[in-house]
Amino acid sequence: MTSATRAPVLELTGVTRTYQSGNRKRTVLKGISYTFEPGRMYAVIGPSGSGKTTLLSLASGLDSPSTGSVRFRGRDIAELGLGRYRNRHAATVFQSLNLLTYMTAVQNITSAMEITGVRRGNKRQRAVELLELLGVDADEHHRRTLQLSGGQQQRVAIARALACEVDILFADEPTGSLDHETADGIIEVFRKLAHDEGKCVVVVTHSRAVADASDEVLHLKRGKLGAR
Ligand SMILES: Nc1ncnc2c1ncn2[C@@H]1O[C@H](COP(=O)(O)OP(=O)(O)OP(=O)(O)O)[C@@H](O)[C@H]1O
């Protein structure tokens, strides 16, 4: 299928976000319109403070735009329910990962499936399948995540996000704290998820390597999307 024939999975239309602190208002995003497709990897780049995390929060249903709309498969996510959108359709891997470090890799994934109400008979088996897909070795599946390396923890966090069978995966600076080699492995994971598994992968990054590996690069500058 060519990209021209793919139905969009996510559409931002005229999205603005204004923050108010005291009497001061500041519009961080100034009318962003963009269409995301399945099976593609997107990088969101831009200077510090340009609104990348704000854009990710709106697109992932953690926050609502001041004006404009965010649509998942044609339906406004506010109407769908932000909680439902986040649980069923769009997962986010945060910079802090938020793994439960006293639990094993498998337990982190199965507990997320319980919490988000995934109806699947053998959750442990699914957790193992996902860890294998992401290249986490079998002897690491049952180790507490505290004992795993940064790159392994990042993979577990991605597996946990995918466990809820989402269509869109957002990640905020996923390679920021990793060495080059480990970062390259994570970039490859994202590319495979997009190109082989058909996910829409959206990564906020300062990394040139992530931007170079992406199918599309969105450059945020002064609240607008521009050419790179
Ligand atoms: N909840 C908030 N209330 C008020 N201002 C906010 C809030 N969240 C973000 N901002 C402001 O919005 C602007 C954009 O922030 P954002 O975190 O989206 O930028 P960013 O491009 O992700 O930056 P960085 O690359 O440094 O992480 C900043 O000036 C920030 O101070």
UniProtKB/TrEMBL annotation:
ABC transporter domain segment(s): 10-228
Superkingdom, natural source: Bacteria
Molecular function GO terms recorded: ATP binding; ATP hydrolysis activity; transmembrane transporter activity
Residue ranges crossing the lipid bilayer per the database entry: none
Heme is among the record's keywords: no
Alphabetized PROSITE patterns for the sequence: ABC_TRANSPORTER_1 (PS00211), ABC_TRANSPORTER_2 (PS50893)
Protein keywords: ATP-binding, Nucleotide-binding, Transport
GO cellular component, one term: plasma membrane
SUPFAM superfamilies assigned: P-loop containing nucleoside triphosphate hydrolases
Keyword Nuclease applies: no
Pfam family, one: ABC_tran
Function in brief: Part of the ABC transporter FtsEX involved in cellular division. Has ATPase activity.
Assembly: Homodimer. Forms a membrane-associated complex with FtsX.
Family: Belongs to the ABC transporter superfamily.
Protein's name according to its UniProt entry: ABC transporter ATP-binding protein
Native source organism of the sequence: Streptomyces qinzhouensis
Biological classification of the source: Bacteria, Bacillati, Actinomycetota, Actinomycetes, Kitasatosporales
